[in-house]
Backbone:
């Protein structure tokens, strides 16, 4: 009987010993799930964000990994649906132990993911979802935004419009929450910086508008010096394509004007030259770190880390710094380490504010020019810095009450 007991214990010990390398191997990987639309109308946006994340993981892994562990990016197709995103994320949490998630497309998806992260003791961060509420009244200890916020983004554009001395502004925006929020913030900051500047026309249109003629006509009739729009995607492209031939010759300043895909789709440089935009990342940011990043990316990939790629790359590298500081992948420790942390990367110094988990980031103003260093078609010229402190929203104004 004793021999059988000893034999059984030996077999159990051997089984446990053989299992150890498997567990150790699993722990050697830090998994980060990228929740992006990887099918449907916004597939291109999701894929470009994902490309930036994968490149950041490549750079980290080639440098020895993160805490000596390999970083793995797990693509998750959200289909731009909150329920799909959370269902797939929940599955990764329960089956694979994933506790870090990120995404750049769809603030509704981000809001749902933030709630899931809080419930499951995970972290969700975004580099492209700009809805103010996510770090304002709906802020969460488990959500971070190392990216843009709609209020500072609008403030940055107002900052440049005031600096350029425009006295008559026109506004056109999509008629839904984001469009209205962006306009409210723009008008608020413009009034502070240049009280003598008038908004002479303000028009809204449905998402997916095919005929902009009625709206363009209103803009032209008001004779503004320049036009502000937070439009994105096809609504921006169609607006520009139809506006110029109708005689809308004013310069247009937009959130997302520095998208080479939009410029290529227009197929006519005259529709874009002279327009301007503001973003947290542009190719022409004149820092040594950005120049080195762009050169290495181009050498490795054969194309440039434009717009979405650069934003996602920088955000993931910032997140990696939080894990390094924590010295562990424990969620609570990483949250604490990220709060107040600064990262000096390709887009300048980003600082994660502890009060609302909104990164304080500089914005970069660019104008579209014909001759540029990147493409044969019109693209961005030099980038001008707009300091984070000049467009920041004070903590007490956010409505955030971190739990």
Residues:
């Amino acid at each position: 009987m004793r021999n059988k007991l000893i034999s059984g214990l030996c077999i159990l010990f051997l089984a446990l010993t053989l299992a150890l390398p498997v567990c150790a191997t699993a722990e050697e990987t830090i998994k980060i799930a990228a929740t992006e639309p990887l099918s449907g109308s916004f597939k291109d946006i999701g894929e470009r964000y994902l490309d930036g994340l994968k490149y950041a993981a490549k750079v980290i892994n080639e440098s020895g990994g993160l805490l000596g562990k390999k970083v793995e990016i797990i693509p998750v197709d959200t289909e731009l649906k909150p329920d799909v995103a959370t269902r797939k994320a929940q599955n990764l949490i329960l089956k694979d132990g994933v506790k870090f998630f990120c995404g750049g497309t769809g603030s509704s998806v981000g809001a749902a993911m933030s709630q899931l992260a809080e419930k499951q003791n995970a972290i969700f961060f975004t580099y492209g979802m700009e809805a103010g509420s996510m770090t304002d009244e709906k802020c969460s200890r488990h959500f971070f935004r190392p990216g843009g916020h709609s209020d500072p983004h609008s403030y940055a554009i107002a900052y440049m419009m005031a600096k350029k001395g425009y006295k008559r502004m026109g506004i056109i925006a999509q008629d839904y929450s984001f469009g209205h929020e962006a306009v409210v913030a723009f008008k608020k900051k413009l009034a502070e910086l240049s009280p003598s500047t008038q908004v002479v026309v303000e028009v809204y249109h449905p998402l997916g508008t095919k005929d902009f003629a009625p709206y363009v006509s209103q803009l032209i009739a008001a004779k503004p010096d320049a036009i502000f729009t937070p439009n994105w995607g096809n609504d921006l492209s169609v607006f520009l394509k139809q506006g110029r031939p109708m005689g809308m010759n004013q310069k247009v300043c937009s959130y997302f004007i520095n998208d080479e895909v939009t410029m290529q789709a227009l197929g006519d440089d005259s529709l874009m030259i002279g327009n301007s935009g503001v973003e947290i990342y542009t190719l022409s940011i004149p820092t040594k770190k950005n120049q080195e990043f762009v050169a290495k990316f181009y050498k490795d990939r054969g194309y440039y880390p434009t717009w979405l790629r650069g934003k996602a790359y920088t955000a993931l590298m910032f997140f990696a710094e939080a894990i390094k500081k924590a010295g562990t992948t424990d969620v609570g420790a990483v949250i604490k380490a990220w709060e107040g942390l600064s990262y000096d990367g390709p887009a300048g110094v980003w600082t994660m504010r502890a009060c609302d988990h909104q990164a304080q980031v500089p914005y970069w103003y660019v104008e579209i020019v014909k001759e540029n260093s990147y493409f044969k078609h019109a693209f961005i010229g030099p980038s001008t810095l707009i300091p984070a402190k000049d467009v920041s929203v004070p903590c007490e104004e956010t409505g955030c009450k971190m739990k």
Q: What stands out?
A: Residues 2-27 form the longest helix (26 residues).
